[in-house]
Design a protein that fits this description.
mainly alpha; two-stranded antiparallel ribbon; 5 helices; 7% strand; Transcriptional regulator
Length: 82
């Protein structure tokens, strides 16, 4: 049997959320923008990994409020894990 190593890039979501807060996007406002529950956003603020679809949506909101350059930087900073 051959072992397969899979590397996954993990975004630093706490940094992304901190950037949003710095531009005035509170957890409450993010809840309204993304049409999700407050407890979902709070779980991300505590370090939970958002699902892929929520992650894409968060990055779109981040681009809108923080600019393409900072969003691209956050994606480049994603760490590789297996």
């Amino acid at each position: 049997m051959t072992d397969i190593l899979v590397l996954v890039a993990r975004v630093h979501w706490l940094d992304v959320l901190a950037d949003l807060r710095a531009t005035g996007v509170s957890g409450y406002r993010l809840t309204n923008i993304m049409l999700t529950s407050r407890s979902t956003v709070q779980s991300w603020e505590k370090g939970s990994e958002p699902s892929h679809s929520y992650g894409i949506a968060i990055l779109e909101v981040h681009t809108r409020f923080c600019g393409e350059a900072l969003t691209a930087q956050r994606v480049r900073e994603a760490r590789l894990v297996w």
